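Bench log. Compound arrived from synthesis this morning; before running ITC I wanted a structural hypothesis for how NQM sits in the protein. Inputs:
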Amino acid sequence: MTVPDEARCMLMRGGTSKGAYFLAEDLPAGAGARDDLLLRVMGSPDPRQIDGLGGAHPLTSKVAVVSASADPEADVDYLFLQVGVDRPEVSDRQNCGNLLAGVGPFAVERGLVAAGDGRTSVRIRMVNSGDLAVASFPTPGGRVDYSGTAEISGVPGTAAPVVIEFPQGSGPLLPTGHARDIVADTPVTCVDNGMPTVLIAAASLEVTGYESPKDLEEDLTLADRLREIRLEAGKLMGLGDVEGTTVPKLSLLAAPLDGGAVMTRTFIPVRCHTSIGVLGAASVAAGLRVEGGVGEGVARLPAQGDRLRIEHPSGFLDIEAGIAYDAEGVPVARRTAVVRTARKIFDGTVFARPAGAAPHL
Ligand code: NQM
């Protein structure tokens, strides 16, 4: 297999994450050669990713692969790939709603979608889940404008808003079929509104849910407990053996501190998120509304409307996510909508570490 050592690439911040965006045609067609190149582009495996683009954290070791879509309901296909930081792994088992924020602007920048004069909407098929999303953003004069006044917690400054809407998702909202399960002696709600997530009241793990991500990551007793819950919940959710995978995520819930619906600490799944993922927040928001779920008695839901404020370690994320009950009384997700921002950081050619030059670990 001959794998190239360079590729056309755009580095973008998408929401509170950062990643390398590629046209599918600019990467090797086979998954083996593609992943080999991406690991070397990111500088993985290496905890510092010193010899590549990666930022030494899962939130900055991400890739978006974008192409024109054959689906008549979509303009582009978006495949998300999570590149391991200290492990030589590239996973397509999860989606990423944060990098999704950059996909529409990237599609316009690369000429896959023609910009409207003023605003552009791009219909995106998320290849990882098969679900659709629609992103709209300002394109004055037919060019993407990244500047604006929208503010999102976890990103300094302001930027142009990217409004993302998800019509109803494809899979079951409650993958175990129950509002509440007991997993490793712990009450949980397993929910999937775009991201398989296990909701747990922080108090049931003897933490407050207000600790810093660093303090939680250093709590080895907690790490063992979360690992045990995740492995068991993964099986119950139909995900099989999740030992080496990035899903399900785990969100610890505590009462809100600042007028929101709930405070969260989300494990993705080993590192603790410095904010919260978009689809992770969509799953938390929908899960809180499920009657009999573990959010009851912890969350404070607004009296009306679909809008919820999810508090997290660096602020909050406002999201519209409603549920309904079908004729059999099974909860199903309705439309989800969120505002993110994105920014082009560089556009050019990325030069990968040469094949075979693995870093010393
Ligand atoms: O849940 C991190 C992120 C994410 C995922 C993760 C995301 C989402 O913040 O939609 O965006 O959960 O691994 O980038």
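What the model suggests: The two ends are 26 Å apart (CA to CA). The CA atoms of residues 121 and 136 lie 4 Å apart.
ITC booked for Thursday regardless.
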